[in-house]
Amino acid sequence: MKRPNLNQNVSVINGTEVIHRRIPILLMVSIIILLMMILFVIGMMIGYGILHSPMDVFKSSTWTHLLKLTGSES
């Protein structure tokens, strides 16, 4: 059998070894999603900041102009 790492807790339940994680999977997934959202916003600020002010990304007028430009506004 595999030897557990030092960071993992092992217990035996009904004759089966169960390895408990220090960071649960749900917490890890939510941290990754949060980091992706933060990096998306930073990327938008850098991309838009080349031509204009980076803080203009958060203005609604920027997004309405973008929707009109692409023809996506309904």
From TrEMBL:
Protein's recorded name: DNA-directed RNA polymerase subunit beta
Phylogenetic classification of the source organism: Bacteria, Bacillati, Bacillota, Bacilli, Bacillales
The UniProt record lists the keyword Transmembrane: yes
Domain of life: Bacteria
Keyword set, alphabetical order: DNA-directed RNA polymerase, Membrane, Transcription, Transmembrane, Transmembrane helix
Organism of origin: Macrococcoides bohemicum
Gene Ontology cellular-component annotations: DNA-directed RNA polymerase complex
InterPro entries attached to this UniProt entry: RNApol_su_b/EpuA (IPR024596)
Transmembrane residue ranges: 25-51
